[in-house]
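so my prof wants the structure for this chain in the tokens format not the other one, which i didnt know existed until like an hour ago. anyway here's the sequence
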Amino acid sequence: MKKKLLIATKNQGKLIEISKFLKDLDLEIISLGDIGISEDFGENGKTYQENSQNKALFYAKLSRLPSIADDGGIEIDALGGEPGIKSRRWVGKNSTDEKIIDHMKKIAGELGENRKAFFKTVVSLALPNGKVFSTTGEIEGIIAKKPLLKLLKGYPYRSFFYLPEIKKYYHEDELFGDEEKLYNHRYKAVQKIKPIIKKILAL
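here's what i got, hopefully its the right format
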């Protein structure tokens, strides 16, 4: 019988992405919906790591399953690293993808020469006994003056995040094969945590 691993997120984009990155492991991937968990975790940490670890621990204890969670954001160099940890709440507590896109159009138009930006994430694996492990991933790009018109649900900032090295936006419809692995911050963090998952779950 396969061991179970809970992907502790309500963001469908993240659920699909993390599940895809873990599909080579001999695991049964479980979502919060699969086991009827509707409780929300209130992110009030001061760092990506704090939020990521606390979220993974919260759902590991609730589900009694090993759980993976992540927290991250986009950091715009010219804005002193904003929005960072506030990425989802930058335009208000109940911000939608569309509201963030509208706000980013304004920001993108106002940025000067320095358009450098980073996507950063911390992925954490927590066990019901309270043990927790974390890894990080990041990529560098620039904020494009105009967004890619096709919105990637759950990932509004990716419509503005341009990768000059390959002349493409950070969007799943744009990146192919190895490009997705080379230029995905979450993939990098998940790759680093895979050996820990294998060891802890004795795969």
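also thought this was worth mentioning. The longest strand covers residues 132-143.
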